[in-house]
Every structure is written in structure tokens, then in C-alpha cells.
Amino acid sequence: MAQLRQQVDPDEAGLDPKALDRLDQHFAHYVDEGRLPGYLISLARAGRVAHLSTHGHRDRAAGLPVRPDTLWRIYSMTKPVTAVAVLLLVEEGRLSLDDPLDRHLPAFADPRVYEAGAGTEVTTRPAKGPVLIRHLLTHTAGLTFAFYHSHPVDALYRAAGLESSVPPGANLAETIDVYAGLPLQFEPGTQWNYSVASNVLGRVIEVVSGQPLDVFFAERIFRPLGMPDAGFHIVPEQADRLSELYGETEGGGIEPIPGLPLRGRPRFLSGSGGMVATAYDYHRFTEMLRRGGELDGVRLLRPETVALMTRNQLPGGADLRSFGAPPHQEPGNDGVGFGLGVSVVIDPDRTAAPAGPGTYGWSGVATTTFWVDPGRDLTVQFMTQVRPRTLKVFPELKRLVHEAVVD
Predict the structure, then answer these.
(1) Are 230 and 82 in contact (CB under 8 A)?
(2) 3-state SS of the chain: helix, strand, coil percent to 5?
(3) Which residues contact 25 (CB under 8 A, 6 or more apart)?
(4) Rounded Cα distance, 293 and 281, in Å
(5) Which residues on adjacent β-strands are paired with residue 132?
(6) Distance between CA 352 and CA 321 in Å, rounded?
(7) Average pLDDT for residues 372-387, to the nearest whole number?
(8) Is the bond preceding residue 327 a cis peptide, omega within 30 degrees?
(9) What is the pLDDT of residue 372?
(10) Which residues of 141-157 are buried (b: 16+ CB within 10 A; e: fewer)?
(11) Which residues are CB-neighbours of 210 under 8 A, at least 6 positions away?
């Protein structure tokens, strides 16, 4: 069975074993306190795993431990995979970053932009230009999420049944038509707002390729890269390796909550957050990116394409705070820009946690994350399964990993 394994001693890879002990002890304490069920941490230098640790349970009630082959709902860590799928089609000339979205999805013709009002009193005006494919990849299209509660367009998403980004029982094509019938929050390309854009890209991939999203991912990404457990659902043989999903309670503990309906192929294939994968699977994916689009003799993307993907694409070199729409105009977004499907550190002196210049990555709502630091030739994964309320793992993780790198 394919699973992540440590390949080199930490000191040989320029990592401080004592600092790594502090890293493990810090998160083990969270498990022992009942704030995390269990976790997996991996650090790789130059592509070789130099630290791999697990602690706690993938299912607390059943007493099943986290193992290297545990399956995780990676939620929004699906988005970089969707971005790579789009870029595959761009390289083949079947799609362009500057294609108007309505060229592939006619429902998005003649978009309208929010002007004033709320609820049934909302007024809109024609957008000055079309939504482009690059706007979707950079979350500057004017789309949003229903759960923000920060703008009248968010409320329109809720009224349309999009609390979970998909109307009950709808498939991808039906869901995209609902998005297309709602106004944009702002003119395309003028602000950054994290949104349902990757679901729209998923439908673009289906239309352009002529394949269902899960089939395209499997044939063009998972199989070529050797990601045997990655997908949008699990088969019975995988079921005992799937981690239970937990939610943080008001008292700071955790309890099981419903997660992605992974047992059986879902009707809604979400390019925004529908994937399940092991740490081995995602390590293969991040290794392809770190190596400029190639892994073990298989090339998915040209180095120039990966460089474009992992370079800040916000106009004028802006960061997420200065270019973001509420609720993104907050200090935690200082010094961080956005590429094509990934965040990118553009000013390490201003970031909330230590990070090297050019570091790129993304996270998932169940407290999973990855990043690649090109300057340190460092790749990091953190996997657990908690939807947080107050728990803030990532700044601590970044600080402790930073302290462990000694060359």
C-alpha cells in the first residue's frame, strides 16, 4: 500500500530534531487536551520526507489511531488541484486565461453587478466587462460564499439555497446555473473575494474536456502522478482508513459532525472542496509543483506554467488585505498575495507568521494545510479533521516549523 514514509534523517536535511520534538509536543498537547482528535505532520526538504509524525485518533469513539495511510477530507485543498486541471487545458490550447467565461458557460453572459439595497430591494447594473477564466483562478470574479454574512449578495446566495454552496440535490451543472443568476459583488478583476469560483472552474473543465470532473482528475492528474487514494469518494476497501470529521464545540472541545458524503459517487462534484486524499497523495501533488510540473518522469505542466501559478497575480502587486473585499481586509492577510489557485507570500516582513518569500500553498476548512517554500526547498503538510470555531493552528504551525529549519 502506498503511504508516506520518512526518507532521510532530519539533521541530514537541515532540520533541528529538538525543534521538531517541540513541534510534535505542541500538537500532541492539543490532542491530549481534547482540542484535536489526531494529526499528521510531514516536512520534506528537496523532496525527501525528513519528518513524519502522527498522534491521536482518526476515530476517537472507535479508538482507531491516525496512521500515514489515513484518508482525510481536504476540502479547499481541492482548489489547487482544480487550478492545475485548468492549466492543463490552457497548455493544450483548449482554454485561455483571458477567455470570457460565457464562451464556455453561456449562462454567465451579460453579468450584472450589485449596486445598492438588500434582499428584494437589491439593484444591479451591467458589468463593465466579462468574467474571465483568470478572474475565477484568482478569486477576483465577484462571486462569493453564502456563509460570509458581510454583504447583501451573500444574503442572495442564502436565499437561493446556497448555504453549503450547492442547492439541495443539485449537480454541478445545475448549481452553476444558480450562481449565474445572481449578481456579482463587484466588477470582475477589481477586488479579491474567496468564493465558489473553483466550482465554476470545475464545470468549465467538464465542458471543455467533455469529461465529468472526477474522471478528468483521475485520468489527467491522479493516475499520472501516482495518487492512488485521491478522489471524490471512497470505495468500501478504503472506508476503515477514513478519518471521522469533528467540529469544535463552544467549550473548546470537539464532537463528531457530518462531513462530505464520500461513500458513493456524489451527485455534486466540487472543484472547490470535494476531494479526499492521503498525505502520500497530496505529497505527490505538491512534489509535482515543487519540481516545476514534473514528477518521476511524468510532466503535467511546463515550468513556466507552474511559475505563473505560484506568482502573485493581484494587480499592482497588491496583497489580500489591500485588495480584499470584506471579510478579507484583516491583518492576517498582510504580505500575502494570490496566484492561480494558491496564496503566495510577497512580503515576509508583514506576514502574521514566519514565511519565506514566494512560499505558496492553501488550506482546508477541516484544519488541513500545505505549503511549499522554494527558498528553503521545504514542503509542509498538516492533516487533521476539525472544523474550528476559535482554534487557530496554522500560525503556531508555521512558527514551529520555521524554528526547525537550520540551514
Answers:
(1) no
(2) 35, 20, 45
(3) none
(4) 16
(5) 100
(6) 12
(7) 98
(8) yes
(9) 98
(10) bbbbbbebebbebbbbb
(11) none
pLDDT digit string (tens) for 231-241? 999 999 999 99
Give catalytic status of residue 76 as yes or no. yes
What pTM does this model have?
Answer: 0.97
CB 228 within 8 A of CB 220: no
pLDDT, tens digit (0-9, with 9 covering 90-100), for 120-168: 999 999 999 999 999 999 999 999 999 999 999 999 999 999 999 999 9
Q: What is the mean pLDDT of the chain?
A: 97
186 alpha carbon, distance to own chain's centre: 23
**Catalytic annotation, pick one of 42, 53, 76, 343:** 76
List pLDDT tens digits, range 322-337.
Answer: 999 888 877 789 999 9
pLDDT digits 0-9 by tens, 73-91 = 999 999 999 999 999 999 9
CA distance 194 to 351: 19
Instruction: Spell out the residues 6+ positions from residue 13 whose beta carbon is closer than 8 angstroms to its own.
Output: 45, 46, 48, 50
**Residues forming a β-bridge with 369:** 363, 382
Count CB-CB contacts under 10 A for residue 163.
14
| Amino acid 328: pLDDT | 84
Instruction: Please give the Cα distance from 102 to 400 (Å, whole number).
Output: 46
**Phi, psi dihedrals of residue 10, rounded to the nearest 5°:** -55, -45
